[in-house]
Specification:
The chain is of the alpha+beta class and 468 residues long. The protein is 48% helix and 13% strand. The protein has 16 helices and 13 strands.
């Protein structure tokens, strides 16, 4: 009886609403059906997406603080695939992002760092260098890379992906060679998820030291790749793997893209340039906008308002809008100011440079307003960043690679390594390409003064320019 009374009251209200405001009555009935009829709701949401609406309730347009007291892995591992994907997209499609990566690779590696044995015995040094020269361009057969190309690839992967792995390969009857492994292949097999000592493909002992790496036999991005299990994964002892990553926090298992802090700035700068281009295109067109005073109910619009959708629209030359009853066209010829674009681009470039340890002139490759002193200051500041990464690459990877190749050659009985001790076998110095002087005359005069003062030597001067 009570339910019957409620239904009677509701019908009376509906009748009154229909008589007073048919539009409100139609909207009310629409949302009632949206709430109780799942098929009806799904059909309307699909129609809105097809019309170009997208959900807009996920954010408020602000950038609130979201810091938490979580471990390094808790902060990184969940977001790492998305960060890596965005970094690759910027390097692939964004001119500035691609240029930053090329600048770092060119200045850190150049044509490749050169190895010089440093035993103190010139005869031994010559013999060791002869062995290395013979082997260096043959140790990356999978990608068919020279040693210089392999160095550039690794630095590029560290910048772009945050990490890369190099695995030594021993096959019977063959000299040792190396395989370069992309980050996605390092992962925990599904049947090992419960193993608390394996985290994102890196297995550690009770003290937290890496003891093995779980590497998928095929890249997970291949269409033919099956779910990763121990059957299609390789457990590689840590002594055969060099995991190249920049570590920012204790306990950090995986590396993050070098440019992770500026991904949004790069994206914003790209969108700024795109908006400027669109503005110019719109200014070259006769733009038309629809104005409507109609009381006709558009259920798509009112549904979008309730469920938090917004309509994506674009203006292109030659577009024709089909008008609804009561709608009319108003034209607009935009007149946007442009003088602030340049300073805004420089401001974003400064933010990007501050995160990378570079100046905005290097980021934008713009030295048109630089003097000799300012250009030299910019380059010296950037070279400090390059030297840190060069030193890291040498200590972390190149020395490891040299030691493995030379030990393998000696185990294979190479007569050129006879009489060389274990300690002497790993004594090597790597010489980067170095950089040319900004003003050769001024720089040479400064080097001459330093030589006379005894604060430098010819070897250091030659080494700073990448010479032997």
């Amino acid at each position: 009886m009570f339910n019957g009374l409620k239904q009677s009251i509701r019908k009376t209200q509906d009748a009154a609403l229909l008589a007073v405001s048919p539009r409100r009555y139609a909207i009310r009935k629409h949302f009632e059906q949206m709430e109780r009829d799942g098929d009806y709701r799904d059909a309307y949401l699909l129609a809105m997406r097809m019309r170009g609406y997208r959900a807009a309730k996920s954010g408020t347009g602000k950038a609130p603080w979201s810091g938490m007291s979580r471990s390094a892995d808790a902060e990184i591992l969940t977001d790492l695939p998305a960060m890596r994907g965005r970094s690759r997209e910027l390097n692939r499609d964004d001119s500035l992002g691609s240029g930053i990566t090329k600048t770092l690779v060119s200045n850190i590696i150049g044509t490749g760092m050169i190895a010089q044995a440093r035993t103190g015995d010139r005869d031994k040094d010559n013999r060791m260098e002869a062995v290395w020269t013979e082997r260096r361009n043959k140790i990356f057969p999978v990608d068919n890379l020279t040693h210089g190309e392999s160095q550039r690839l690794k630095i590029r992967k560290v910048v772009e992906d945050g990490e890369v792995l190099v695995k030594s390969v021993y096959l019977r009857g063959e000299p040792i060679w190396f395989e370069t492994i992309e980050a996605e292949r390092l992962a925990t097999p599904q049947d090992q998820i419960s193993n608390k000592y394996i985290r994102d493909g890196v297995e550690r002992d009770g003290w937290g030291r890496p003891i093995a790496y779980w590497i998928q036999k095929q890249h997970p991005g291949d269409n033919i790749t099956a779910l990763m299990t121990t059957a299609n994964a390789m457990k590689i002892d840590a002594k055969y793997v060099c995991h190249l990553k920049l570590t920012d926090r204790p306990g950090q298992t995986r590396g993050v893209p070098f440019c992770h802090a500026i991904l949004q700035d790069l994206r914003d700068l790209d969108l700024l340039m795109l908006a400027s281009l669109k503005r110019t295109q719109i200014a070259a067109c006769l733009s038309a906008f629809i104005k409507s005073d109609s009381q006709t109910v558009n259920m798509l619009d009112v549904t979008a308002e309730k469920y938090g959708y917004i309509l994506d629209q674009a203006i292109e030359p030659g577009m024709i809008f089909k008008l609804f009853p009561g709608e009319e066209i108003q034209t607009l010829i935009p007149n946007f100011p442009t003088p602030e674009l340049g300073p805004f681009i420089i401001m974003l470039a400064r933010r990007i440079g501050a995160a990378l340890g570079l100046t905005w002139q290097i980021i934008l490759k713009d030295f048109s307003q630089s003097t000799y002193s300012s250009a030299r200051t910019d380059l010296l500041e950037a070279r400090q960043t390059y030297r840190i990464l060069q030193s890291w690459f040498i200590e972390k990877y190149l020395n490891w690679e040299w030691a493995i190749v030379m030990n393998d050659a000696r185990l294979r009985g190479d007569p050129r390594l006879a009489g060389i001790t274990d300690d002497e076998l790993v004594k090597v110095q790597w010489i980067p390409n170095g950089w040319q002087w900004v003003d050769p005359e001024k720089e040479a005069a400064a080097s001459k003064i330093e030589l006379e003062m005894g604060t430098t030597c010819l070897r250091d001067i030659c080494g700073s320019k990448g010479n032997d």
